[in-house]
Amino acid sequence: MNLAFHDLTKRYGGHTVLDAITAQLDFPHVLALLGPSGGGKSTLLRVIGGLESPEAGSLTVDHQPVPTMQKPLRVYRSKIGTVFQSWNLFPHLDALANIMLPLTAVHGVEPEAARTRSLELLERLHLNGHAHKRPAELSGGQRQRVAIARAVAIRPKLLLFDEPTSALDPEMTAEVLEVIADLKSEGRTFVLVTHAMNFARTVADQVAFLAHGQIVEQGAAQEFFAAPRTETAQRFLAKVLKY
Amino acid sequence: MTRHHTINAAISVLLGATLLAGLCFTVLQATTWDWSGVWAYRQVFWRGWLNTIWISLAALGLSVLLGLLAALGRRARYPALRWLSLGYVELIRGTPLLVQLLILFYVVADAVGLQNRYAAGILILSVFSGAYIAEMIRGGIESISKSQLESARAIGLTRWQTYRHVIFPQAIRHVLPPLAGQAASIIKDSSLLSILGIEEFTLAAQQVNSATYSTLESYLPLAIGYLALTLPVSLLARRLEHKFRYET
Q1: B156, A75: Cβ pair inside 8 Å?
Q2: B189: CATH
Q3: Does the ipTM exceed 0.85?
Q4: Which of A91, A147, B134, B199 is geometrically suited to a Cys-Cys bond with B67, CB 3.0 to 4.6 A?
């Protein structure tokens, strides 16, 4: 997978969150976006996912430019599986219906086929017996796994995880990280924004380190964690890995 | 509740009941009941009552449609539509129904050549009620969290699909209880259509009154006839409210 940014800029009000990023990121399967809060990693993920439009600059995903017009942009988004920090499931639909909705409404899958595919996924994510529960009846970890199932069900070319465990307690975090690790061994491609450094270290092939709206450093995950080259990354890692 | 409060409440209730009983007694004393005149006109009451029912039903249906359009208009992409919807809602909610009836019936309906007074009356009542329903629907739509709309965008739903699969199924729980209350309001407000010469329940009672010269015998059934319609609707509203409060 290749992500290429050219002068990519995103502002909120007067605040520049992504500051003219120009970079090439190549990774076989898993890219981790790391860095301090407010450094721009979530915003970059949302721009990659087509949820935010940059003010200036452009980006390509696997050498295809991300569309800017509304309709092609929607089609683009539909082919990417996004998992949010707070799962964002639809509260009026049960787990099964949440997973089926994009399949039947957006991807034109027949209801029976969508059902079979969704039930298989629920089973793979250890959610048997929860198909007909609504989000309010599920634990945080279960909700996040349903959200992952919803993102995976569409067979996306790219999965995006935006701090998928930040709202979970340690036990639930472990449940969800296990599922994400499984996705890697299945050979899926994804970009992950996370504060779980040890997890990033084990699962990521490649790391991009963001601070002040810039990609300060990028490289193979093992090398980055073993010997960060820039001072910002060194200080960041020293701080977060200390305890 | 303290002892002090209990005594206060008891005195208030007693006082209120005494006053009411006294008033009723005075009125009833002064009235020499004669139901025979009114009984002869029971068909007029019945027809008026039935007219009130179908006029209210028609106005309810039409006002839900208008309210939905205005609520969607408030969220439209085009500023002109947004302003139009806002103008409609504020203008209608800021003026009395009676004034709207007079202006829309004697000026607007006349100018556009709408001759049928029933059609005009229902239309005006719907325009009036639609403005209130628009606000209820808008509230229901806005109760949907931003994160859900974000999710809808992320999975690639179109605007219409987002309404259909995400917003409407959830908004309806917020809208149904106040909507049932609004139905009761429409039934009561339809009595004002009598001033346009529409033969609904209130006009029927007035006709009976002028034919028989009996006042309370004409208007007491009128009040009871309205209550027979509004009480079940209010009860329904309350039950819906209760149901949806505990289900989410």
Answers
A1: yes
A2: 1.10.3720.10
A3: yes
A4: B134
Q: For an interface test with B, give the residue of A99, A101, A148, A158 to mutate (most B CBs within 10 A).
A: A101
Measured in residues, chain B has a length of 248
Name the nearest CA neighbour of A179 among A234, A129, A127.
Answer: A127
In chain B, residues with a C-beta closer than 8 Å to the C-beta of A98 are: none
How many degrees, rounded to 5, is the angle at CA A123 between CA A122 and CA A125? 65
Question: Chain A closest CA to B135's CA: distance in Å?
Answer: 23
Residues B167 and B161: their CA atoms lie apart, in Å, by: 9
Strand A56-61 relative to strand A2-12, pairing: antiparallel
The pLDDT of residue A82 = 95
Domain hosting B144: range is 51-247
Q: What angle do CA B243, B247, B248 make, to 5 degrees?
A: 130
β-partners of residue A209 are A34, A217
Residue B239 φ/ψ, nearest 5 degrees = -65, -40
- Which pairs count as long-range contacts for A226-232, CB under 8 Å and 24+ apart, including other chains? none
Considering its fold, how many domains does chain B have in total?
1
CATH number of A2-240: 3.40.50.300
Extents of the domains making up chain A: 2-240
Give one word for B54, left, alpha or beta, with left for phi > 0 and alpha for psi -120 to 50: alpha
Q: Nearest CB to A77: which of B148, B156, B166?
A: B156
Spell out a b/e string for B194-204, using b for 16 or more CB atoms within 10 Å of the CB, else e: bebebbbbbbb
Torsion, Cα of B62, B65, B67, B71 (10° steps): -170
B52 token code pair: 């009130």
Positions of E strands within chain A: 2-12, 15-26, 30-34, 56-61, 64-65, 80-83, 158-162, 190-193, 206-211, 214-220
Q: What are A149-158's pLDDT values in tens digits?
A: 999 999 999 9
* Cross-strand pairs, A211: A214
Rounded to 5 degrees, φ, ψ at A139 are -75, 165
> What pLDDT is recorded for position B248?
52
